[in-house]
Amino acid sequence: MGTAAYKIGPYQGGWGVAHDGSTVGPYESKEAAFEATVMAASNALREGHAVEIFAPSREADRAVAPEKR
Predict the structure, then answer these.
(1) Which residues pair with 10 in a beta bridge?
(2) Which is deepest, 7, 9, 38, 42, by most CB within 10 Å?
(3) pLDDT per position in the chain (69 positions), as tens?
């Protein structure tokens, strides 16, 4: 089994999750994107994959429009 890698980042004025060459979202908050990522990562673990989740620090919040934070 391979590694399931997820990267949370600014996306379409909100937050998105990049995985396997595509991005899903936008989510209203970084926390909402993280919660969705954890659910997907849990399924990947159950299937036997290693899992990596990258969630940026607070500095990345500045890249998202203030009304979306």
Answers:
(1) 15
(2) 9
(3) 799 999 999 999 999 999 999 999 999 999 999 999 999 999 999 999 999 999 998 876 776 655 544
Is omega for the bond preceding 10 within 30 degrees of 0, making it cis? no
Q: Which residues contact 32 (CB under 8 A, 6 or more apart)?
A: 15
Nearest to 5 by CA among 53, 43, 47, 46: 53
Which residue pairs, CB below 8 angstroms and at least 24 apart, start in 27-33?
A: 28/68, 29/68, 29/69, 30/55, 30/56, 30/60, 30/61, 30/64, 33/8
- Contact 34/43 with Cβ under 8 angstroms? no
Question: 54 near 18, Cβ under 8 Å?
Answer: no
The answer to whether 8 and 34 have CB atoms below 8 angstroms apart is yes
